[in-house]
Amino acid sequence: MKRESAAERRRAAGTICTYCGEERLTGRQAPEHPIPAVLDSAITVYTSCDRCNSRAGREVDQPWLQHVLVQAERARWQPAARRRRGRRTPHPIIDGIFQDEDGHRVVAHDGVPRYPGSIVHAGERVSIKAETEARADELRARVERQLAAEGLAVRDYSVTRRAVRPRVKTQISVSVTAGVRMGAKLGLAFGAEAFDEDWRRSGEAVQLREWLWSDSPRNGEGELLAWMPGTETVHPLAEPPNHVAFFMDGANGVFLTVLVFGRLGFAIPVAPAGTEPPQRAWRAGPAYGKEVAVSFEDLLVAAVKRATDM
């Protein structure tokens, strides 16, 4: 597909901002990244005004990037921005500082837990756990000094040496609101690229804008919309850790499908039943650099080639 310059794309963007529905595009608006650039995505659009662009970054992108499942995928794939700085993204679920069942500190790195050494007081009993005997002796000496300062002493102690992997428990709270708002943003951004400018006034675009800016996006029945990120079933067009966006015809209309890292999936309604699905598609990530605009047929051909090369 022919690549257009940024100036050509700004001129072709029209005047209606897809994120607010107002005539705010000036032809000088900054590029917007539907899939955040920090995830190795070079996909840009020019259909949002600068005010909405900035607001969406703060209120939509950032909360979604902090979602525990998004952080887990970022830790798994380590986008290039962090690789270049030599910084590793910790896994939000299996990396961190925890406590075992006895209250001792456990530090997990790369999913491997260890005992750095800690002291737990339980009445007159003091328990020490450490991964080396030298560290345990150091902590025992600390306890003895603390007791001596209070006029007390250790009456007796026992030492147990064993190979054990720490067991920890943690609670994870997952909100779907951040994913729903991000899905609405993706629908508006890619929809504005694929349909003519009148689409930005359509009922589907109006609904997406309501979900985009709502703190509690809900459907017509007043229920919280669902976002189902991550799946054990790999989509045939997925290519982890790259991202892909394309349109498909569904029973209730045309849906935009976006697979971030090939796993975090969105299905966003963008047009009513009977509408011809746009053939435009996008892919981004470490395998593609700045070559992001493709066709749905290109995605199908690439998927068949990957299947036959296996």
Number of individual domains: 2
Backbone structural class? alpha+beta
Average pLDDT, rounded to a whole number, is: 86
Order of helices and strands: HHHHEEEEEHHHEEEEEH
Main beta sheet: strand number and arrangement? 5 strands, antiparallel
How would you summarize the topology of this molecule?
Layout: H1 6-12, H2 50-65, H3 68-77, H4 80-85, E1 96-99, E2 105-109, E3 112-114, E4 118-122, E5 125-129, H5 133-149, H6 177-194, H7 203-213, E6 243-250, E7 253-260, E8 264-271, E9 280-284, E10 293-295, H8 296-309
Antiparallel strand pairs: 1-2, 2-3, 4-5, 6-7, 6-9, 7-8, 9-10
Helix pairs in contact: 2-6, 6-7
Question: What is the structure about, briefly put?
Answer:
Helices cover 32% and strands 17% of the residues. The chain has 310 residues and is an alpha+beta fold. The protein folds into two domains: 6-79 and 178-309, no CATH class; 94-171, no CATH class.
Structure in words:
The protein has eight helices and ten strands. By secondary structure, it is of the alpha+beta class. The chain has a five-stranded antiparallel beta sheet with strand order 8-7-6-9-10. The chain has a three-stranded antiparallel beta sheet with strand order 1-2-3, with no helix packed on it. It is elongated and about 85 Å long. It starts with 5 loop residues before the first helix and ends with a helix. The model has no long low-confidence stretch (mean pLDDT 86).
